[in-house]
Amino acid sequence: MDHRLGRLLAPLCLALACSGVDDHGDAHHVADSDDGTALPSAAIEAPYLVGELSCEEPSVAGAVERELSPDEETELPPPSGLTELLAQIRQQGGRPTLHFDTRAAGRLLNVRVPVRADQVHRTADAVDDDVALDLGALTVRLTHQAGTAVGAPELVLPATLPLDQVVVLKTYTRAANEDGLGRARLAMVSVFDRRDEQAGPVATLAIDDQLPQAREADCDALAYELASEVPPVAVSFPRLSSCTVDECAKTRAAWLRANHDLHRVRQMLEFIAASPPEDRAYLWAAEGGSEGGERLMSYESDDVGPNTALAFYFGPYAEYRFKAIRIAYERLWRTFHDHEVGGLELDIECTPDGPGDICNTTKPGGHHAVKSNMKLCEKAYTTPSQVFDVPRLVLHESMHHMFVPWKDNLARLSPIMDTHTHGHGGLCAGKLVTDKGYGLKKIKHLASYENDRGDDCWHNNFAFRNNDTFAYAAATIGTYIRFGFLARWPLEQAPEHEDNLPDPECGMAGVNTPPPGFSDPLSKCYKSGGQLVCPGAHSPGDLDIGVICAPQ
Known about the structure:
Elements: H1 3-9, E1 30-32, E2 38-40, E3 43-45, E4 55-56, E5 66-67, H2 82-91, E6 95-99, E7 108-114, E8 121-122, E9 129-134, E10 139-143, E11 154-156, E12 166-173, E13 176-177, E14 180-181, E15 185-193, E16 203-206, H3 219-226, E17 233-235, E18 239-241, H4 245-273, H5 277-284, E19 295-297, H6 311-314, H7 319-338, E20 340-341, E21 344-345, E22 347-350, E23 366-370, E24 373-376, H8 378-382, H9 389-398, E25 403-407, E26 411-415, E27 419-424, E28 430-436, H10 439-448, H11 459-463, H12 467-482, E29 488-489, E30 527-528, E31 531-532, E32 545-548
Parallel strand pairs: 3-19, 4-23, 7-17, 10-11, 18-22, 22-24
Antiparallel strand pairs: 1-2, 5-26, 6-29, 6-32, 7-12, 8-9, 9-10, 12-15, 13-14, 15-16, 20-21, 23-24, 25-26, 27-28, 30-31
C-alpha cells in the first residue's frame, strides 16, 4: 500500500497508524504452508472509519407510513444479463466474484451537463436559437447554424435536435508523471441527444493547448484533483448555490466519491439478486478482502472486516428487507443522476449565512430540511475527514424525503428517517427508546439487537428505514475500495451445490475482455462516444466481474 494513503487517511483513524504498511513496508506478506507453498496472510490492516459530522433531521410533516396500493411494486427485476452470466461462469466450473480494479484512478472523468430550457436563447425573428454554455474551463456556443461567435468555440448541431434536449459530456484527463498525476484538464467536449444517448455523440470538440482554459474557475477539474482516488466514472452534478470556488470543489469532490460509493454497494446488491436464492443469505453476510485474498482488520476495532458485509449494517438476511434495500439504493442512484426529489430539482447550498438557518444555530455538518434543498454547513468544509465523512453526509442527506415500498405480511410505503421508537425486552414493549439512528453504535444496535427469545423487536425493520445505515454502508465499503483495501467480494465462496470441483481451466473467454456489443450488467454508467466509462474499468469495456478457478 502506498505510504501516501496513510497520510491521507490518517484523520479517519482513532489512535494508530492505518496505512496498512508494516515495518517492512509491504502490505501483502505471505506465509509458508506446511508443504512450503505460499499462502496469503490472514488479514491486512485497514482504517476504522468513524463519522464525526452530525446531521439534522428535517421536519417529519407528511412522513407517514401508509399501506401500499396494489399497483405499486415492492421489488426490482433481476439485472439484465447478470443472472445468465453468473450461471454461465458456474456451469464452466468457475466461481464468480466482484473484482474492484482501481489502477486507473484519477485518470479520466466524464461530467454530464444537461442544457436547461432557460439557457436557450432564441433570436428575435425566431429563425435560430443558441446556447452559450459555461463549462467552467471555457464557454462553448451550441447552435443549429454556423455563426460568427467571438471568443467562444462553436458546435453546430443537427436541426432535428432541440437545444433543450442536449446533454454535453465534458471529458477530463490527468496524465501520469514522476510525481503521480498531473493537473486535470478538459480534453474533449461531446454533445449527445439525451433522447438517445446510446447513438453516440452528434458533435465533438477536442480541446488543445491553443484553446485557453480558465482553470481557476473550473470547479470540476479542481474537484477531480481532490478526489483523485476515484476510478474513471461518469457523473452528473446538481446545481450549487452560494459556493466559493473552494466550497464548490469540495462539494463536487464529495459528490464524486459518494457517486462511486453508491455504485459499489449497488453492484453488491445486484450480484446477490442475480445469484441463486439459496446463496443469497450467505452472500449477504459475506466479507470482502484485499487483492491478495486477505480479510480486513484493525487493531482499533473488531468491526473492520465485518463492516465489509451488508449484514453488518442491515441485520440478518430477509428477502423482503433485501428487496426494500435494493429499491431504496436504486432511488438514491436516480437522485444522484436525475437530481429529482419529490418532483423538485435537487440543489446544494454552501454555508448559508441566514442567522436562523440550522447551519448557524445547532451547527451540524449539513441538513435537508426543505425538500430538494440540501445545505452543507461550515463543518463539512473544515472537517479533516473529507474522504469519508462528507461523502457519507451527502448520501445521508440525499435520502431524506424518500419513501421505500416493502412487503412482509402487509405491503407498506415507509419514510426513510433518522428517528425511530424501538422497544426492548421479552415483550418488545419495555425500555422504549426514541432516538436518532446516527453513528455506528446505533446502526449496529438496529442491525443486531435480540431479546432473550431471539426476537429483534422490529429493530431490523428500522435498520432499512434509517438514513445513516444506508450512508454508512455505502461510504465505508466505497472508501475501502477507493483506497485499495477492498478489492474482492465475496472473499470466500458460498457452499458448493455441485458435486464436481471447479475446473482449473474455467476462465471464460470474454469475461476479462468482453466481446463486441457486450456491456457489463453491473456498470450502470453512461456512455462516452459509444464506450462504457464506469467505476473500476481499467480500460473501456472492462468488467467488474472476476472468475475464481481451482488452483492447478
